[in-house]
């Protein structure tokens, strides 16, 4: 097993822990999100060619939402996780694809929860699970999807 594979497995374990924590508590500590960021940075430098645009897209997109939403829409961990996941994508288009998948899935689930009266408009929904899903789908299927565009 290569060092890159070990990093990816570690990242998946951390991502699972972060996802479970976000769903169960609605809060993710830096104790979980910062190691994911560190693994992403190590992965990026071990897997050239690395595009710094990927983590920048994730960071900027979520930081802007946090500012516009006056810190109500997006949590700080969402920003860290989005940037961290960007370090695992060697092509910035995969980061964009992962965000599109995350928002599509989150919108569908959110709509179903609202229509079923499980959640109200004022309630929050953990978003990191959708970020994780989008990242995994983009990582596994993204290169072949982008080849057809």
Structure description:
The chain is mainly alpha-helical. The protein has one domain. The protein is 76% helix and 0% strand. It is built from 6 helices and no strands.
Attribute tags:
149 residues; 76% helix
Offer a concise description of the structure.
By secondary structure, the protein is mainly alpha-helical.
* Amino-to-carboxy terminus distance: 33 Å
Number of strands: 0
- Fraction of helical residues: over 70%
**What is the number of domains?**
1
Low-confidence stretches: none
Q: Averaged pLDDT, please?
A: 92
How many helices?
6
Could you state the order of secondary-structure elements as H and E?
Answer: HHHHHH
What is the overall silhouette?
globular
Task: Lay out the secondary structure.
Layout: H1 3-25, H2 30-46, H3 53-68, H4 76-88, H5 92-115, H6 128-147
Helix pairs in contact: 1-2, 2-4, 3-4, 3-5, 4-6, 5-6
